[in-house]
Automatic annotation (TrEMBL):
InterPro entries: Hexapep (IPR001451), Hexapep_transf_CS (IPR018357), Trans_hexapeptide_repeat (IPR050179), Trimer_LpxA-like_sf (IPR011004). Gene3D superfamilies: Hexapeptide repeat proteins (2.160.10.10). This is Chloramphenicol acetyltransferase. Belongs to the transferase hexapeptide repeat family. Its EC number is 2.3.1.28. GO terms for molecular function: acyltransferase activity. It comes from the Bacteria.
Amino acid sequence: MMNIEKGYYTQQELKSFNFNYLGEDVLVSRNSTIIGTEYISINSNSRIDDYCTLVASEEGEIIIGKHVHIAGYSLLSAGSGIELHDFSGISHGVKIYGKTDDYSGKHLTNPTVSSEFTGAVSGKVTLGRHTIIGSGSVILPRVNIGDGVAVGANSLVTKSLDEWCIYFGSPVKKIKKRSQELLKLEKKFLKTKA
């Protein structure tokens, strides 16, 4: 049986990267790319898996709550900021953008053009507590995803989503309400950690 710690940086190594904040028992894959560590906060018991890319800067911080999981091949491009609240998770290959080009044809696009000509759209992205984002989904800027939201795989999120609902599609549409039973399990889980 493989020791999970072997593929992840040690706590001592992570502390040397000068994160803005680093909690206890954080796992970050050695095969991930992290840019702008001084603008990234990772709270306790969170995990970032293989081949993830996190990009933060002075214009946009990344804040990761407690017990957050970021699955492999995911991208967090902060732009104007990304915040993942406690117990949220993003599945394999999810892309979150805090800034994106204007695709209307009214502006030039790509980072080789100065910002005065691009008309880029930017805004903070927030994922509430117990939010889960399905594999391959894309979240665009200026989106607030409420507590307890579940977004199905391969969905496109272009607007804020109401809490405790299940969404799916491109663009996403509300499918139905989501159970809040997991809140009872959270209380039991936290008691076992105390």
